Amino acid sequence: MNAIVDICLDTTAILTIVCGAAGLIFSLSLIFFPERMRAIDAFLSRTYHLKERLAYFDQTIRNELFIYRHPIGCGCCFIIGSVVTLIFLFTQMDVVRLLGVLQIQDTQRLLWEMVLEGLVIAGKLAGAIGVVIGLFLIIAPGRLQRIENRLNSWVATQPLVDRLDVFNHVVNVFSFRHPILIGSIGVLLSIVLIALSISSFF
């Protein structure tokens, strides 16, 4: 487990170095070649409409028709699966033993223990909800369907996305009006990021 954590940290440091080097190059180009950067910015400032291409994934899968046509079978499956999950979580799941198997360091043990305990609690809650849903499917499938229809409300998020899908010229205009200032700030930040990332290897 420690090796995996070390690999993730090293990968993050390498990506930070790459991003810092890219930022350093762009900042120096903004200082010494502002017109060239303006031309590159004009070339890259394009709009791509992905809504039509992603429409295929925005479909409703009507699985409730099968469930409510076979409420007893689906309810039994819900109950059996949830009961098996609850039995495992209450009898076999030992967070302390799992942490020992994963060989978590003492400095990270509390954090991982909190994460695993949260996952166990979420699993127990999901198992209890599964038992309740299974019983409703067997005893009162019509009432469960009415509750589902009441909860199945449409929330329009497109207005929020439309506010974010607006090109803002303020940053570009300010950057090209003050190329030395913005470039110097970018150079300083990039050097700090690169230095911190390199120091993490030692």
Helix content: over 70%
Outline the biggest β-sheet. Answer: none
Instruction: Assign the structural class, choosing from mainly alpha, mainly beta, alpha/beta, alpha+beta, or little secondary structure.
Output: mainly alpha
Beta strands, count:
0
Radius of gyration: 27 Å
Overall pLDDT metric: 80
Q: What is the molecular shape?
A: flat
- Helical region count? 10
Low-confidence stretches: none
Describe the structure.
It contains ten helices and no strands. It is mainly α. It has two domains: 1-47 and 169-202; 63-166, no CATH class. α1 (2-32) runs antiparallel to α10 (179-199), α4 runs antiparallel to α6 and α6 (106-139) crosses α7 (141-151). The radius of gyration is 27 Å and the shape is flat. The mean pLDDT is 80.
Highlighted features:
single chain; 79% helix; mainly alpha; 202 residues
In short:
The protein has 202 residues and is mostly helical. It has helices at 2-32, 34-44, 64-69, 71-92, 95-102, 106-139, 141-151, 158-164, 170-177, 179-199.
Secondary structure layout plus pairing:
Elements: H1 2-32, H2 34-44, H3 64-69, H4 71-92, H5 95-102, H6 106-139, H7 141-151, H8 158-164, H9 170-177, H10 179-199
Helix pairs in contact: 1-2, 1-10, 4-6, 6-7, 9-10
